[in-house]
Write a structure and sequence with these properties.
The complex is a heterotrimer. By secondary structure, chain A is mainly α. Chain A has eight helices and no strands. In chain C, strands 1-2 form a two-stranded antiparallel ribbon. In chain C, helix 4 packs antiparallel against helix 5 and helix 7 packs antiparallel against helix 8. Classes of the chains: A mainly alpha, B mainly alpha, C mainly alpha.
């Protein structure tokens, strides 16, 4: 460490900034000491989420390109189980609610409730993963693997990466739960929890898109059209 | 400008040779009426109501978040119900699904992820990533040829 | 560290190119086998793009951004370290392929399904895919760091429109990297899964579409070329004003043009696919968007020329490189505009004309720009100036060699010589141009040798340079050279663009601001500078990432003596990575630090 004078701002400017920060603090919570007023870590998380949009977008686009292109079955209309997936979607949505409640209680310094809701997020997240694993195993039993056809490949890899993101999120939140359960949750850990929350909500909104596009809209996907006669049979059948 | 061409230009395109469009003189006793939108002041009223509902001191309580969560749950139920309708929507099925999904997306992003209350730079960053993703993938999907095209002539 | 590593790869990539040129110097030469030739041009392209230009730009970002915005360090120093180590390990992994069974040989953009298991058996392409994925992670981490640093850590008073142009270009480049790298990550993951796990992404037998790869790759690839060139444009926007003793002409226009290039660069990718058969509608749309994107580039070029116009030019080496950049980039840009039209592109695609185009913009553009930055900022980084005389020899030999090498490729291409051919028949009329090109390449290599000698001489010399040898304009020159570990003893209060210049020459300020600036002394406050301690967790996490990704190559390995198949290396990688991450998270950190 080096001891040196550190001058950041003019006196007057400093007073004004402090006053502004105090007002903003009352209204919104933290105002960080940066150019944008947003803490470094929060900004980092949002830039990461913007980039993750592109990541999932590419996989979803790949899925969409290959809709109705599988040459052999099983096809989505034969194998997707919408009731099951609706339940798992609901579970994930509620985990998002639990997340935001946990964060809220931390910010209000109600630590016991916060820890309860944080644990709820973890449990609900694991529940979602459980549903996913069950679904994957069922599909494999029914003959849909990543090797089988285009639907299998794109579906498993897309939802697999989503599940991986959920899993990483669960580990992160579990780690936060244990790390902060001893001492008091400080304002700094509220910011950490906010970051974890942002990640968790992002995983949820990606699932919203996947559920709608792959399950609800994609449910009617079937065989690709191969010849004129084939098209005739599909329309008639 | 002394230039005759620019003088001609001003004469043709500007009132009175000034660079402003001249408005009639208004005295303080008869000021201009307030601007009205096509729906009266329904716009500002609704916007004010929405703002009050979603912004301010009363928000960010657990009750508020639970209500938002309930709305999300209702939207999910709606989605699944529409899905189960037997061709009840026909060609409107996909747009309905997409609208519902978009609504859920925006609600989670705005409230759960706190973008409504945060500085707009964060909204800009997220929107940049999201909009670019949507734009390029829409373009990509639209120029994509069907992989296995049906032949035009029967074999 | 970035700079040294990138320069080493520049030498490696250069050697690969020299061998290629040696092979092509004569018709029907059999200096090297076609298989080796394929590996060489693949590795040359991959090395130059991913292991030279991008890391060298990252090196300049690392050094110069904090200094130019008046910050003590980047926003996330450990993330910075992580991205360097991941880059190093990824690049070593990629180059290990030469000794571990053959380098990738399917071209630097690895079109599917040439890169599938059927047509590229063996490990080469898998090395390529996994190595690039690791490098992508490194670039992503670096880009996040720079975006946050530039947005959040500027000195008080430095609004976005008072930043140096180099910092603006760094911001745009970092945003492009953050948004484009995930796309190629997806494409490479899909390719790796196809090769290792037999998935069907690009498998025509299952209905897969090779054009999907092209779309995904070029969706990344086009923003990537802007990532490659914008930093060099930023560098040149810094050196030209300093060495013309004039402010940059039209600062807002240059910044805005850069932003527009960054944005529009997303909508032109299919101009790499004009000959794929997308149809007239798609081709026309992309032709128009490609031609439009030449406009902001032209704006920048005109602004640079106007900057030098009427200035008192100091034609030292850095300035020569900057001017060379402008000239060569114009030539490359012009040939690029000819590709923008699908009919002409149909003739030019996959010929040496394209090779000429991209070498003019990438070598004549990015590399010359990076050399300009090297000569300009060498005294800042080391406290010594690189030798001028040797530098001028370097410049002139380089530019002559460069034009001798790539100039003839224009007419070679138009005469029909395809790219990526290991040899060509006698009697086609291509021999002379190829021979000239190869001779030019030798000259080019010699000029690089001169640069190396210059560097060695400078390092071993004792002659020091002053803190501000060029009488420069931006903040980094206001502190000692080389900078102390804490960069700025006192965080500067920025009042205008080119603040340092006006602090030095207050008589040049025409408005009241000048009197204020001159009259205000720096106030003194209390406090101390707290520097974060060094951490080895980023290094560990990096190893974890590299090992984990490398393990994917042969993911299921049999436990010896049993029938159990287990993803050994990947698991080891994950464990190491987790250890690194957990240590990183719980390490005590200073108030100003982050991840």
């Amino acid at each position: 460490m080096i001891e040196l004078t550190d001058d950041r701002t003019h006196e007057g400017l400093r007073e004004a900034k402090l006053a502004q920060a105090a007002v903003a603090q009352e209204q919104h919570g933290h105002v960080a000491d940066t150019n944008t007023g947003i803490s470094n870590r929060k900004l980092l998380m949002w830039v990461f989420l913007a980039s993750d949009c592109l990541f999932f977008g590419s996989f979803i686009a790949t899925y969409l390109v290959y809709r109705n292109e599988s040459l052999v079955g099983p096809y989505p209309n034969e194998i997707l189980d919408i009731p099951l997936t609706s339940v798992s979607t609901f579970v994930l949505l509620m985990s998002s609610l639990a997340m935001v409640l946990a964060l809220n209680y931390v910010q209000k310094d109600k630590l016991g409730l916060a820890r309860f809701w944080l644990l709820a997020v973890v449990v609900l997240g694991l529940g979602f993963l459980g549903f996913q694993v069950f679904e994957f195993m069922t599909f494999v039993d029914e003959g849909l693997t990543i090797h089988q056809n285009l639907f299998g490949t794109t579906f498993f890899i897309l939802t697999g990466f989503h599940g991986l993101h959920v899993f990483v999120g669960v580990l992160w939140l579990l780690g936060m739960f244990f790390a902060h359960s001893r001492g008091a949750l400080t304002s700094r850990s509220a910011e950490d929890l906010e970051m974890a929350g942002l990640y968790w909500h992002f995983v949820d909104i990606v699932w919203i898109v996947i559920f709608t596009v792959i399950y609800l809209i994609g449910y009617s996907d079937g065989e690709g059209v191969k010849t004129i006669e084939h098209a005739a049979t599909l329309i008639g059948g | 400008m002394a230039n005759p061409i620019s003088r001609l230009w001003s004469k043709i395109f500007y009132h009175g040779g000034n660079r402003h469009f001249l408005l009639p003189n208004v005295d303080a006793a008869h000021p201009d009426p307030p601007n009205e939108g096509p729906f009266g002041d329904a716009g500002p009223v609704v916007a004010g109501w929405l703002n009050g509902l979603t912004y301010g001191d009363k928000v960010a309580t657990p009750i508020f978040y639970t209500i938002v969560g309930a709305i999300l749950a209702i939207l999910t139920v709606l989605e699944v119900w529409f899905f189960t309708l037997d061709d009840g929507f026909g060609v409107l099925f996909v747009p309905t699904m997409l609208v519902l999904a978009l609504a859920k997306f925006i609600i989670v992003v705005a409230f759960f992820m706190h973008l409504r209350f945060d500085k707009s730079l964060l909204s800009l960053i997220f929107a940049a990533g999201f909009v670019i993703a949507i734009a390029i993938f829409m373009i990509f999907l639209s120029i994509q040829d069907k992989v296995n095209p049906a032949p035009l002539i029967a074999p | 560290m970035y700079g040294v590593t990138a320069f080493l790869y520049f030498l490696i990539g250069g050697v690969e190119a020299l061998i290629i040129r040696a092979q092509l110097a004569q018709a029907e030469s059999d200096l090297i086998s076609p298989e080796l030739f394929n590996q060489l041009f693949t590795m040359h392209g991959t090395t130059m793009v991913f292991l030279v230009v991008m890391p060298m730009s990252a090196a300049f970002f690392n050094w110069m951004i904090p200094l130019m915005i008046g910050a003590r360090d980047v926003a996330f120093p450990r993330l910075n370290a992580f991205s360097y180590w991941t880059f190093l390990f990824g690049s070593i992994f990629l180059n290990l392929s030469f000794v571990l069974g053959g380098a990738p040989d399917a071209g630097w953009f690895g079109y599917a399904n040439l890169t599938g298991n059927t047509y590229s058996p063996g490990d080469g392409v898998t090395f390529w895919a996994l190595g690039l994925t690791t490098l992508g992670v490194a670039s992503l981490a670096a880009s996040f760091n720079f975006v946050v640093t530039i947005l959040n850590m500027r000195a008080p008073g430095m609004s976005l429109m008072k930043m140096p142009v180099f910092v603006w270009m760094a911001l745009i480049t970092s945003v492009l990297m953050a948004l484009a790298m995930p796309i190629i990550a997806v494409a490479l993951i899909q390719l790796s899964l196809d090769r290792v796990w037999d998935t069907n992404f690009f498998n025509p037998a299952a209905g897969g579409d090779p054009v999907l790869w092209q779309h995904l790759f070029w969706l990344f690839g086009h923003p990537e070329v802007y990532i490659l060139i914008l930093p060099a444009m930023g560098i040149v926007s810094e050196t030209l004003p300093v060495f013309s003793r004039k402010p940059l002409f039209g600062y807002p226009a240059v910044v805005f043009a850069g932003a527009v290039i960054g944005f529009m660069g997303w909508f032109v990718w299919s101009h790499h696919m004009f000959t794929v058969g997308l149809g007239p509608a798609a081709n026309s749309a992309f032709a128009i968007s490609t031609m439009l994107i030449a406009v902001p580039t032209g704006v920048k070029i005109f602004n640079w020329i106007a900057t030098t116009w009427g200035g008192k030019l100091n034609l030292n080496v850095s300035m020569l490189f900057s001017l060379g950049f402008i000239a060569m980039f114009i030539i490359g840009g012009l040939s690029g505009v000819t590709h923008a039209s699908p009919p002409t592109d149909a003739q030019q695609q996959d010929t040496y004309y394209i090779v000429a185009h991209f070498h003019y913009v990438l070598f004549g553009g990015a590399i010359l720009g990076l050399f300009a930055g090297g000569y300009y900022w060498w005294p800042k980084m080391t406290g010594k100036r690189l030798g001028e005389k040797l530098g001028k020899w370097h410049f002139w030999l380089m530019i002559i060699g460069f034009n001798l090498t790539f100039g003839p490729m224009h007419w070679l291409g138009l005469n029909g010589m395809p790219r990526r051919i290991a040899t060509y028949a006698d009697g086609l009329g291509w021999e002379m141009s190829n021979a000239i090109a190869s001779a030019g390449a030798m000259l080019l290599a010699f000029s690089v040798l001169l640069f190396i000698i210059n560097v060695i001489r400078t390092i071993s010399s004792t002659q020091e340079s002053e803190d501000d040898p060029w009488d420069a304009r931006t903040l980094e020159w206001s502190i000692p050279s080389p900078p102390p570990a804490y960069n700025f003893a006192r965080i500067p209060q920025v009042k205008s663009l080119d603040d340092f210049w006006y602090t030095k020459h207050p008589e040049l300020l025409h408005d009241k601001r000048g009197e204020e600036a001159a009259a205000e002394p720096d106030t003194h406050g209390g406090g101390s500078i707290h520097l974060p301690d060094m951490s080895y967790y980023p290094f560990i996490t990096s190893i974890g990432v590299a090992v984990g990704v490398a393990g994917f190559m042969d993911i299921l390995v049999e436990l010896p003596g049993t029938n159990i198949q287990f993803p050994w290396l990947t698991t080891v990688g994950i464990v190491i990575g987790l250890w690194g991450l957990i240590g990183w998270t719980f390490e005590p950190v200073s108030e100003e630090g982050g991840h």
